[in-house]
Write a structure and sequence with these properties.
Distance between the termini: 13 Å
Strand content: 25-35%
Number of strands: 19
Mean pLDDT: 83
Shape: elongated
Structural class: alpha+beta
Helix content: 25-40%
Length: 537
């Protein structure tokens, strides 16, 4: 009976947790997306409100017909020669749909949707302003990587004779792009410039739901705050205005991220804005002063790709936190590493999930055994406890003292059945976030009909098997005659409720729960046999 109550507690706790997550996501007022924003209308609108951090940053310009195309082993990028903005980025090794050849497109600029990465030089000696952008020239319009690195130089010569070279550097196997400005002041006057980098995105309605509470919006990092989300709703209410050494800004969505990472040893200003349904998050560097004849380089890194924790950590120690495991991150990180370890051995994410399930259940076995032993002892003490209740009647103080003496004499811990539950729930929630957030599981096959562990079972076989396993567990522990009738009905319907509930869960998570139930059934059989030998039923 106690075990059945524990199962019920697990279900209620987890449902409450998911409802709380969704409430957290939905409680803030939603910014109404402007689906009618076109490339031309954005071109003539102010890029950001009048705020200290974002003033003088240029507006988006219409994409030129002569885009510069760059193709590496991982990326296909299109650069607008007007301003040198990245207006298109396709991730060649990540497909839009399972089994299809079409790549996943992260950045794009269309009449109805804008998601681009801008960068430029502002200030007295800058070449970008609200009045116009520099129009760069390139040696060719198509670049293809043939070696380990590929440089794409763009050149602009200002009216005062100063030549500005903007260089995009791509590396084999990587999703980050180096963006460098090389300036040589050939004029007779000093130059003062600042580099800015920003990510602009038309606000789209969230695709999150209770089973998949994913996040789409901004995020940033400073010296004081390693990682913090900055929702579109917050951008509409108040502009971010943070001065920090180093730092980064990013736009997040499920499995993928775009991020600007300026120099870590320099002072930068981080800012946001929102106008006409278009959100913007960016950074601005300190002022660079170039005397006549002086030369200087200003650089930053731009990442556009999957939430690969190793690659993100290489750019910034805190950038991997965009893989958001929630408040149980301290538990989710070792689970993720253990999952990666198992996958490296077996080469199958489904088998890795099974192995991590066996590991967790094995580690908890001593507590599980103690739980069932405690439950068996408590059942055997029921006649004595009932006798005490009749003897002491309404005298709760004497009844409590007598019960504690009995527990001490019989070496029974009445709370012994709770500890495994308290440990299993954080592990389950942490694994839930690992399976939800880890891009490695996107389009990861298991076997037979399970071709993608990150989405629901297409034929609902795993949820049904999970429900059957719960029913078997329930039958192994007959309900006590003294159980409350309402609670008894809830217990009878629990396998059905969980089956329906798990229909929309990612297949990987249902697999974990199913295997956990099977292991629990085997453990119960072993423990029950051991207890019966000791005379405990």
């Amino acid at each position: 009976m106690e075990s059945q109550r524990n199962i019920l507690l697990i279900g209620l706790f987890f449902v409450s947790f998911l409802l709380w997550q969704q409430w957290q996501s939905d409680k803030a007022p939603q910014v109404q997306p402007q689906t009618s924003v076109t490339t031309q209308s954005v071109q003539h609108s102010a890029d950001v409100p009048e705020a200290d951090a974002s003033a003088h940053v240029p507006a988006t310009v219409a994409a030129s017909k002569d885009l510069i195309t760059v193709k590496t082993d991982q990326l296909e990028v299109k650069i607008n020669p007007v301003g040198g903005d990245i207006v298109y980025a396709a991730l060649l090794s990540h497909k839009l749909e399972l089994g299809k050849d079409e790549p996943f497109v992260l950045l794009e600029q269309t009449p109805d949707f804008t998601y681009i990465a801008q960068s430029g030089l502002i200030g007295a000696g800058g070449i970008d302003s609200v009045k116009g952008r520099a129009h760069f020239t390139a040696a060719k319009t198509d670049y293809v990587m043939n070696g380990d690195t590929l440089e794409v130089p763009l050149t602009y010569k200002a009216a005062n004779g100063v030549t500005y070279t903007k260089i995009f550097t791509f590396r084999k196997g990587e999703f980050d792009v180096g963006v460098d400005y090389r300036i040589r002041n050939t004029s007779a006057e000093p130059l003062a410039v600042q580099m800015y980098g920003q990510i602009k995105q038309t606000i789209k309605p969230s695709e999150s739901h209770m089973m998949m509470p994913t996040y789409r919006g901004g995020a940033f990092s400073t010296q004081e705050v390693r990682y913090e989300k900055y929702k579109f709703e917050e951008m509409a209410k108040d502009n971010l205005d943070e001065k920090t050494q180093g730092g980064w800004v990013a736009m997040l969505q499920h499995y993928f991220v775009s991020a600007w990472v300026p120099q870590a040893n320099e002072q930068n200003m981080l800012y946001t804005s929102e106008k006409h349904g278009v959100a913007n998050i960016g950074f601005r560097t300190q002022v660079y002063n170039l005397a006549p004849g002086a030369t200087d380089n200003i650089s930053a890194q731009f990442y556009v790709g999957p939430k690969d924790q190793a690659a993100l950590s290489a750019l910034s120690p805190s950038l991997n936190l965009v893989v958001d495991y929630g408040f149980l991150w301290w538990l989710a990180v070792p689970i993720y590493k253990l999952l990666m370890f198992f996958q490296g051995i077996v080469g199958n994410w489904g088998v890795a999930i099974i192995l991590i399930t066996l590991t967790v259940r094995g580690a908890l076995y001593p507590l599980t055994k103690a739980q069932y032993t405690s439950m068996a002892k408590m059942r055997n003490l029921q006649p004595k406890l009932q006798e005490m209740k009749e003897r002491y009647g309404d005298d709760r103080q004497k009844l409590g003292q007598a019960m504690m003496e009995l527990y001490k004499k019989e070496k029974v811990n009445p709370m012994g059945g709770c500890l495994p539950i308290l440990l299993q729930m954080p592990i389950f929630i942490a694994l839930y976030w690992v399976l939800l957030e880890s891009v490695e599981l996107r389009h990861a096959p298991f076997m037979l009909w399970i071709h993608d562990l990150s989405v629901q079972d297409p034929y609902y076989v795993l949820p049904i098997l999970m429900g059957i396993s719960m029913f078997v567990m329930q039958k192994m522990q007959p309900m006590a005659p003294t159980m409350d009738p309402m609670q008894a009905k809830m217990m009878q319907w629990l396998p059905v409720v969980f089956t329906v509930f798990f229909l929309w869960f990612p297949a990987g998570l249902v697999l974990y729960w199913l295997v956990g139930n099977i292991v629990a059934i085997i453990q119960q059989k072993i423990i029950y046999a051991s207890l019966e030998k000791k005379g405990l039923k």
